[in-house]
Amino acid sequence: MTPSDGVRPVSAGRRAFYRLLVDTAGTTREREAQARADERLRHQRDVLRPLAAIVIAAVAVGAINGHPAPGIHGGGAGVAAGVVVFAATLAWAARSGFVARSTTTQAAVIAAMGAAGIALVALQPKGATELAGGAAVWTAVVRLPFAPGVSLAAAVTIALGAALALAGGPAAAVLAATLLCALLAVVAHFIKQARADQDTMERLLAQLEDAREEQLRHAAVSERARIAAELHDVLAHSLSGAAIQLQGARKLAERNGAGPPVSAAIERAAELVRDGLANASQAVEALRGDRLPSIDQLDSLVSAFRLDTNTEVTLTIEGDARPLPPDASLALYRGAQEALTNVARYAPGAVTTVVLRYEPGCTSLAVENGPSAAPADALTGIGGGNGLAGLRARIERTGGSIHAGSTPSGWRVEVEVPA
Fold first, then answer.
1. What is the rounded distance in angstroms from the CA atom of residue 131 to the CA atom of residue 138?
2. Hey, is 401 helix, strand or coil?
């Protein structure tokens, strides 16, 4: 069959959406829906449990006041046995753990309940013992699956009517008992079906909400990938061009004998371009959903800084290491990165210490450097000047804090996050 036959083909995206509806079973929302269904079922059982005690009491009182009365001989013994079996089986069926039993066990208990009701009707056709058979019919429909429940309820109803007729009960009584059982079966079925429909509806709504959320997430990922591609193309082209121009400017300055300040300015501009390329690459990776750096990579960061700048820097970890939330871990890593970059820029060669401290309820990172080992550079102020400000905003978004300031021998940056 082709699309021209009047049937619209199902797109791959729509097929994926349908699969998603099926595959979302077991999600948090669906588990919550199932928990609500279980709670409703428990509530209904709690409400009906006192009713079971009332039915047992009514059947027992009716049997005591009927003829023959319960006793230890003849028909009285049969009535007594029927009341005991009925009371025991209904009390068992009303317990909360009864539904955990196998279907076979439940059916056997309900069948015994129905048999007790039928025996009571046969022995006391003029008593109130029809309630025992009606209780068995109700329990069969409510507790058992549809086919065995209806079959058992129908068998009890027919047997109850036959027993009443054989015991000499009037036709009106037989009809009334049959109609009572049928009415109880219908009401029980509708109550059970209504509960099942509500449970199914809540599960489907949970699956639909999960599917909608997943679609939104995929849409967001696609849009971020598009933005990342645009950002990469624009920034990579512009900054790469700027880097090439600066290389040419540096060679031209060297050829024309430009002074140290001009060469230093060009070198610093080239450094800023390289930093911009690195930051743009990290931003693109973040937009694409790539794995971002974390505090677990702090040792690699310090080692690379030591190798690249020939600076004496040490890393100390205090406390028991533990996994941190991604935002907090990234914030600490960026804090160390920014602080080390500032050391290289404003205090080249300064002895530096990095201390990562795990404390109860928070994690802190301190980067402190001593005096610069190189002569002061008049161009150290060149740059965006927004590194610490941007870092402060990032830290505050995680609920943390940052403190930066001078010390008697240098500079100290301390970052703390609640993790």
1. 10
2. strand
In the block, residue with structure tokens 């001078």:
406
Strand duo 401-406 + 362-369: pairing: unpaired
The distance in angstroms from the start CA to the end CA of the chain is: 60
* Reported pTM: 0.48
Contact 157, 112 (CB under 8 A): no
Report which of 62, 151, 72 is spatially closest to residue 114, judged by C-alpha positions. Answer: 151
Residues 6+ apart with CB under 8 A from 324: 294, 295, 332, 363, 417, 419
Domain range summary for the chain, segments of one domain joined by +: 10-210, 292-417
- Residues contacting 406, CB < 8 A, separation 6+: 412
Q: What dihedral angle (degrees, nearest 10) is formed by the CA atoms of 111, 112, 116, 121?
A: 10
Comparison of pLDDT for 146 and 377, the residue scoring more: 146
Using an 8 Å Cβ cutoff, are 327 and 398 in contact?
yes
- Containing 315, the helix (H) or strand (E) segment is strand 313-318
Which residues, 6 or more positions from 203, have their beta carbon under 8 angstroms from its beta carbon?
A: 30, 33, 34, 37
Query: What are the pLDDT digits (tens) for 67-110?
Result: 787 878 878 888 889 889 989 998 888 887 787 889 899 999 99
Which residues 6+ apart lie within 8 Å of 96 measured at CB?
A: 42, 45
Per-residue tokens: 106:
């439940």
Contact assessment for residue 107 and residue 95, using Cβ atoms and an 8 Å cutoff: no
Provide the β-strand partners of residue 364: 357, 416
Q: Positive or negative CA dihedral for 82, 88, 94, 100?
A: negative
Residue 74 phi, psi (nearest 5): 60, -140
Q: Which CATH class is domain 292-417?
A: alpha beta
Q: How far apart are CA 97 and CA 94, in angstroms?
A: 9
Question: What residues have CB less than 8 Å from 400, skipping those under 6 apart?
Answer: 328, 331, 362, 415, 416, 417, 418
> What residues contact 26, with CB distance under 8 A and at least 6 apart?
none
